[in-house]
Structure formats: C-alpha cells, structure tokens
User: Fold these one by one.
Assistant:
Number 1:
Amino acid sequence: MKKKLITFLIFTFLSLPAFAVINYPLENRTAAPIFEWALDLNNGSITIAAAGALDRQQMPDLQATSCTFQSGINNQGNIYIGGSTITNAIGTNEGLHIVSTGTISNVTVNGNANKIWIAGDNIGDVIKYLCN
C-alpha cells in the first residue's frame, strides 16, 4: 500500500502544470492593486545659468517616480545632481557628478522631480533628463 501511495503522489506531482493561475472574482475587492501603470515620460534639458559655489537650479515641477540624467555632449565641465544644498566643485557639498556624456539612471524622486537640484562647473553646460 505504501509503494502504491508514493507512486500515486509522484505521478500526480509530475502531471501538474509548472504554474497554476487562480482566478479570483473581481467583485467585492477592497485591496489596492499590486501594480500601477507608470506615469507618462517627461524629457527636457537644463542649461547651467551660473557656475558659482552656491549657484544651483531646481528641476521643473514634474510628477515623476524616477529620473535619468545625461550630461551634454559638448559640456566643458561636470554637472552635479543632488538636493537643495548641492554645490559644484568650488563648494563643499558636491552632489553626484556627471562627466560630459555621462549618465546617472533611475534616481528615485517619489512624486515630483523638483526635489532634485542641478549645479555645474561651467555656464552654458547642459543636462538632459528623462522622468516617469
């Protein structure tokens, strides 16, 4: 009897699909959805207007969850990203620096891109952004 039971269990296990889909009724659901659609993409660029130790520019007011940044191809210096107290190389609170054509991806902003500030070593240098 024991041998037949083991054989039955092995056969049953091997005949199961690799995964099973369980359908739950849609009515009377109270829980929040597990996945939400990503926000629309927003892209643009910021040109460094001033390059003093305390000069910084705030990202635009964009609803976003994360942003990717790329330094302009013709930039002469570094671009820095960080919070509201960020400085460039002259200051004492350098953010993450991006060299010419360098990229920093998936910076989480949790709601709005304007939480990120940009500084640069040279007036006229550009940083491009893509946020969702």
Note: The two ends are 62 Å apart (CA to CA).
Number 2:
Amino acid sequence: MKKLFIFLFLFVLISSCIITLSYKSSKIRKEHSNVYIQIKKLSSSIKKDLNKRKNIYNSLNIEYNNYLAKKYPEMNRTLLKMELIFKKVKTEEKFALKLKKEVYLLTKNKKKIKSDKPEWDKYDIIRDKAKALNNRVEDLNDKYQDLAEDYNDIAKNAGIKEVTSKKIKKQFEANSKKLKNIVRLYENKVDKFIKKYSSDSDKSDKLNEIKRLLAKINNKNNDIKHLIESFNNRLKGKKKIYIIKNADSVVHQIKKAYDEINELGVEINKISKKL
C-alpha cells in the first residue's frame, strides 16, 4: 500500500510538471503573411529585372539585325534559364499563399494554438512546409543572381553599352552641321568647275565624273538624313538607350556614310587637279 501511494504521488507530481506550449494566433498569421509578402516581392523584383534584360536584348536584335542572336547565342540561352527560375519562384509564391490561407483557417476564432490541442500537430506540418519553402526560394534566388552575373559578362563581351539620348542627339547635330558644310563646299567647287570648263570638250569626261561623284555625295547625305530621322524616332521619350559598340547599327551606318562622303570628296579633289 505504501508503494502504491508513492507511485501515485510521483505520477501526480510528474503530470503537474508537464508544460502546455502555445503560440499566439496573431503572431503565427503575421509570420506566414510576411513569408508570402517577401516571396511576392522577390518574384516582382525578378520579373522587373528579367523584363528589362529581355527588352534590351530584343530591341538590340531588331536594331542590329539579329547580331546578338548570331554572335552571342549563349545570351538568349541564359535569359531562358532566368525565365525558368522566375516561373519556379511564381510557383513558390502560389504555394506561400496556400500556406498563408491554411494558417488563417487553422487559427480562425482562436487566440492561441496549444500543444495539447489537435491543431498543434497540423501547425507543425505547416511550419515544416514553410521552412522547406524558404530554403527552396533562397536557392532559386541564388541561382538567378548567378545567371544574372553570367548575362552581364556576356553583355560586356558583346560590347553592349548604355548611352544618353542627349549625348547621341548632340553628336548627330554636330555631325549634321559639319556634313552640311562639307556638301556645300563640294557643291560650290563643282559649280566653279562646270562654269569654268563646260565649254571645253576635252574636260567633259572629267566634269561628268565630278558630277557623278557629287550626285553620290548628295545621295549619301540624304541617306544620313533618313537614318538620323529614324534614330530620332527611336529616341523619342527615352533618356537612355543601349547600343552595341563596333556593330552594324544606325549609329555606325551614319558614321560609315559620313566616311564615304569624305572619300568621295577626296576623289573630286584628285580629278579637279587634273583639269
């Protein structure tokens, strides 16, 4: 009897020492709400970054006749990998929302979740899912950042450069003014040759050649005007644009046409010395 009494006493003592754990429902809801918000922010950030890169890539491919697609195919492959990461993050965002809703249902009309109640085990499962979710999202973010660095390296090697529209326009205006003076100079020079030698049949072939060269200069000048007009339309409403250094673009086409006009002018000068 004495032994039984001691046993019962110990049982009651141990039972009284068992602590009932609890979580405040408001705190649980806030924690899971924050998890969803953070993943949603990350998703939005990745989407914004990815869209910017894709827009730059696509616009440069149009401007440079698929130069990037042909010369740097790894750039598009990297973008596709980044797109895949984004889709996975969006999936995790939906899963985070699902967990958030589960928590709200579990804690509905409850101030606390207690360890001696059935919902405690249910919350443990949700909490484990949330931890695994957080690890997956961190891993996806790390992978995206690595791919972004790879993309930046490729873009640097390709010669992609950001320039201000103001700088380009200023450059165009200066070149247009200079070109206008050059064309006028050759037009005046040719007019003088024509007035001076038009009656000299021996000079007719050389005069015709000079006229032909001047016509080429005027054509090139018109080409440059159209290119500048086209490029200015591209610049409308944009403070900055992206170009590819040393590639065939409007900027380089203008420079090429400008150089060709100078070469034609040199030819005119050579012929004029033989008159």
Note: The first strand starts at residue 22 and ends at 24.
Number 3:
Amino acid sequence: MYKKFVQYIVFCLILIFPLAGLANDSDFLYARYQDYDAALDYQTYPASLKFMKPGDQTSLTVKFRNTGQAIWRRQFINLGTWQKQDNSDPFWDPQTWRNSARPAALLEEEVKPGEVGTFIFTVRAPLLGGYYRQYFRPVAELVGWFGPTDIYWEFFVESPVPKSLVSWRLPTDRTLSMRPVSFPNAPRPYRIDCTRGVHEGFDFYAPYGANVYAPAGGKIVRADHQYDNRQTMDSIQYKNLTDDIMWRNLDLLRGRQVWVDHGGGWVTHYAHLSAVNEDIHVGDLVDRGQILGQVGKTGIPGDYYVNYHLHWELWANDKYFGQGMDYASIKKEVTKMFGMK
C-alpha cells in the first residue's frame, strides 16, 4: 500500500517535472538524500573564457565520480545552478540547456558507485560585460543536491555597449525611472500564474498618448496596427504551461507593440502602446527620433493598477539586456547607453 502511495505521489510530481521513466525506477523511489554524493574528477577551463564578447559561445565539461551508494540515472540527474540555487544563469544557452537553471543532463545512461559521470554544456556570454563567477552542482531531481559546492567557472565579458549604441536618445520625452522595480529582473507577481513573473525591460512613465521615439535608426520588424486588447487578454493560457506557452503569454501581456531591428543582432521592443504611428509598417526604415507610437497600458490586466508607461526592451542573441544581472550593473550600462548622468 505504501509503495503504491509513493508511486502515485511521484507520478503527480512528474506532471510538473517531466522526467521520463521515473515512475518505474525503484532506485529513484526509495533513494535517500544521503545515498548521493560525488567528488570532482575533471573540469575543462578554456582560455576563451577570459576573452568573451556578448553572444560568444563556449563548450564546458565537468566530470564527477560517484562516491555515494545510489546509482545515477540519466533521466533524473542534472547539473544545476548553485549559489543562488536554481537561479536563472546569465550564461544560459536557450538552444541547448534544459532550462535556464539546468545546463545539462547526465551524459551516461547510468553511473554506478565508483564510476564517473559527465556533464557537457554550452555557455553563451550575456549582454552585460564584466567579471562573473558562476557555480554549478549535481542535483538528483526531487531528491536533493549533492557533491562539492565549490565548482565554478570564471568569465570575463567585454562591455556590451558598442559604439553604435552609445548616445541613443531616450524613447520618450520623460527620463527612465531608476526604481529597481522598473528595471530588468524585477519580480512581477501579478503574472506568476501564466509566465515566469520576471520583468525583462525598462519602464518609462509618461502621460497617456505621449510620443514614443526610435532611439536610433533601424528597420521596423513588427507594428501592431490591428489590435484588440480584450481578445488578446482572453487568449492567455493558465494551464499546461510550457516555455513556449509562457513566452506567448508574456508577448500577449506586452500589449500593442513595435519592434525595431538596429542591425548587429540588436532589436528593441516598445510595449503597452495605445497606438502605432500609422505611417510606419514592417520593412520600413526609421531614423533616430522618429515617432513609433504613443504611450498606453495595453496588455495589462484590468484589475492590476499601473500608471501609463512605455515598457522598453533591448534584445540580442535571444537574451534581454540585463538578464541575470544585478541592479547596479544594469544601471551603469543603461546610463552609458543613453548618455545620462
């Protein structure tokens, strides 16, 4: 009876953490946290980590010897982000990582006590330059973390603000709000039930209908002339959430938008607009200071109070500007970008 109960609980958890095959794995069902342990066996340290530019990619390998009593099985042994446990890592590669806190699964199908297990993963340098020290540790999903706590890599990333981005004009006539809640990575609890609940841009507070400008020249790649706020909000999904569905939900919650491609992989997003300039269309070239639309608050749930504002994002290499970084570092770079003091 007890075994059936445990299997039922594990099955329910698998619906949340889709790790194939766990329900039939007796080692997983009855493994104890103290049965898992590991010792570092091998770690690569490429010289390229000291000379990275935003978007650069490098492959890393780390091997651990199984010094515990449990057998490691590939379907539920991962390498995870450590020190700020399960934190979204600024070096995560969306194309190869399992998610932003799980760079790799165990390479071998199983690793018995005394044998060596391997994790191979790709890191992609973030948009913000500087020195980074990123920690990783093995984790038996639904059981616990194990092994050494001092495994890390050091990275040196060049400043992310190229000459083409320096001295951009502000996208509104109002200055950027310097409150941490208006910066990337600030929590957004009102949408935690349908997205990851994290802010990915900057908020410029301005009156309803205030003009929104292109901070630099570029090409229009999105212009939401046709937009129905009620229909859009009714399209948000709250069940069976996957990364793709959460991304779609977040796009809907940004409301009416314009996107501008500035070249070199840099794209800016302008969200919550009340209107889009009727003279711009996808494929059009725009100049620095050209009007893109007007400030509003489309896409924001009706029962969530917020002042009218422009939500502005800068993206490159599938990452938003400021991803995984602290407030002080982001403030320094965005101040440089817009020439603010």
Note: The chain has a mean pLDDT of 86.
Number 4:
Amino acid sequence: MDRQAVNRLVEDWMQGRDAPRALRVWVATTLSGLVFPGLGQMYNRQFRKGLLFAVAAAVFTSIFVFGVASGVAEAVSEGPLLLEPDRALAVAERVVGSDGGVTAGVAAAMMVTWAAATVDAYLVARRRRP
C-alpha cells in the first residue's frame, strides 16, 4: 500500500467514510491486538469503550510492572543476580509468590483485557455496515 492510499484511507476515516470491510476488520483487530487494547474500539468509533479498555490495560500493566520490578529489586538487594537457570527460576518464583499471587492475577487480568479488546474490535468491525 503506497503513501497516497494510506492518506486516502485516513482522510476517509476522518470524514466518517468507512474503509472496505476486510480492511476495516484487519485494522481494528491489529490496533487492539498488537498495538494496545482500546485502539481498535476507537477506530470503530466506540470511544468510551476504547477508553475503558485502554485505561484498564494501562492500570493492569502498571501494577504488573511495579510488582515485578519491586520483586526483582528485592532479589537484587540480597546479592548479585547471576545468569544461572536455577537462580533465575528461584527469583521468578519469589517474585510471583512473594505477593500472594497478586502479580500472577494481575497478569491474567491484563491478558484477559487484551484478548477481550481484540475480540470485541474484530466483532464490531465485522458487524458494522459500510
């Protein structure tokens, strides 16, 4: 797809004209599935739903990253982390287990949110009339 075709698609979208169905489905699914949850919904003009998915994913991602970072920082404070499989596995088990499974639960919630946003973007894009 050349630059002019992309510019036409963006201009059509900005003016409320829809792209062909196959392209619309592909773009919406790719935005929510590979870029960030909620972007496919926004592409489908469901801005509130897209914002809800994006905020949920951002919150879950932040909690997960903070949980993992704090667990790794705690492990590093006890001594150097060597690149040995047994030591790495022990650190991973400690990070996930040290907070009573909160990090694992948040990771699961993050994956469910991402999958739900991707499936929703796909289904809505397929249902929308041209």
Note: The chain has a mean pLDDT of 83.
